[in-house]
Design brief:
The protein is an all-alpha fold. It has one domain (about 5-130). Helix content is about 75%, strand content about 0%.
Length: about 130
């Protein structure tokens, strides 16, 4: 790993890309209603939550995830294709962790695939951005 090959503006953009993916993924147009049902939440609870705190920590953790992925990709041979593949593989890794925790929480498979799918898609996009923006 060559830390000189970590492109920090790309890390920030890749990390924040998770917001765009999440906004669409958890919208009513895609999986929002199913996710709310399976998570046991309703719109009143979501609207009453501390969204500033949630979005702030989400941004922080997304950037940390992006920085971690960027460190794995800190090689002169990294390109768009390898970045996307590495992001996808990281997404599969996190899918497994989400599935494990969710099974012990007695969550449905639909819930697991919604949250795990988000992880796979958002990390694949992060890897693509990091691999392309060298």
């Amino acid at each position: 790993m060559d830390m000189n090959l970590v492109h920090w503006p790309a890390v920030v953009v890749a990390g924040l890309s998770a917001f765009a993916v999440g906004g669409l993924w958890y919208s009513n147009a895609l999986f929002g209603k199913a996710w709310m049902t399976d998570s046991g939440l309703d719109i009143k609870e979501i609207n009453a939550s501390g969204k500033g705190k949630i979005f702030g920590f989400t941004a922080l953790f997304s950037i940390i995830m992006s920085a971690n992925l960027a460190m794995f990709l800190a090689d002169a041979k990294t390109d768009l294709a390898w970045g996307a593949i590495a992001g996808f593989l990281a997404g599969i890794w996190t899918f497994g962790a989400i599935a494990t925790h969710s099974l012990f929480e007695l969550k449905s498979w639909r819930y697991i695939f919604i949250n795990g799918g988000y992880s796979v898609v958002s990390l694949t996009l992060m890897g693509l951005i990091l691999g392309a923006w060298r």
